[in-house]
Amino acid sequence: MELDLSGRTAVVTGGSRGIGRAITLGFADAGANVVPLSRTESDVEAVVGEVRERGVDSRVETLDVADTDAVEACFDRIDDNLGIDVVVNNAGINPASALGDPEDVSDEGFELVTDVNLDGAFACARAAESPLKASGGVLINVASVGGLVGLPRQHPYVASKHGLVGLTKSLALDWAPNVRVNCLAPGYVATDLTTGLQENDDLRASIERRTPLDRFADPEEIAGPAVFLASDLASYATGETFAVDGGWTAR
Ligand SMILES: NC(=O)c1ccc[n+]([C@@H]2O[C@H](COP(=O)([O-])OP(=O)(O)OC[C@H]3O[C@@H](n4cnc5c(N)ncnc54)[C@H](OP(=O)(O)O)[C@@H]3O)[C@@H](O)[C@H]2O)c1
């Protein structure tokens, strides 16, 4: 058994930047065809180019995962052209408008986050059900430490990520034994999502102090576990959430 994904096709939502881009390129390095999805065509084209440079196939598709009709059509096109063996629900947001004390979070701010992080992930899972069952495939959800513990002033984000951990368990039950469903719970990772934290000296220092490994992760350090979970090396793992958090939740 090896860490080899050749002959398989993976779809990575939010695959154009940050963790999703690293997972996309990690899968391509392991031999998989990979289709990265996001809303920004130029970013998608750039990553598709990097995938093809690795000698595997790809396809330029843009998608807003919160647009459920578009999700269905997009996954159908990918399945018709390349098949689908692995799906990574990675697209996620945590905008300033959804941060703050609970009484300051509007319905719109709450739904903005859950529409993408939770409803969007479920829509993608549902759209991929048939090809994943046919191929004996793998679904990986990207939650957060905020899916395992509470984080102050991030109520929509934490609710959406706890939802994703629950969805992982229930999908794993319903789709066994054909499809394995697992979840990654990253700690703080150096991406566009955390630019504000990285650039604020006090916040960065307090996060680093709170993290036993004493630093933010590089996106590639989340991609490695994703490649493992997609591979046959993880053939008996399903319904589980794996923290990749530098020890954050070990306290
Ligand atoms: N960075 C961290 O510290 C950290 C920690 C724990 C968990 N996570 C989770 O890891 C995932 C990736 O985070 P990241 O840090 O890599 O974020 P990022 O750098 O902000 O990248 C987000 C990606 O998602 C895409 N995206 C955003 N909204 C989308 C939508 N509605 N439909 C489709 N694609 C969308 C973005 O492209 P477009 O904007 O062009 O659509 C981009 O490709 C998220 O689920 C996040 O919650 C991150």
From TrEMBL:
Q: Name one GO molecular function term.
A: quinone binding
Task: Name residues in a coiled coil.
Answer: none
Please provide the record's keywords in A-Z order: Oxidoreductase
Q: Which InterPro entries match?
A: NAD(P)-bd_dom_sf (IPR036291), Sc_DH/Rdtase_CS (IPR020904), SDR_fam (IPR002347)
Q: Which GO terms describe its biological process?
A: fatty acid biosynthetic process
Member of which family?
Belongs to the short-chain dehydrogenases/reductases (SDR) family.
By what name is this protein known? Answer: SDR family oxidoreductase
Lineage runs: Archaea, Methanobacteriati, Methanobacteriota, Stenosarchaea group, Halobacteria
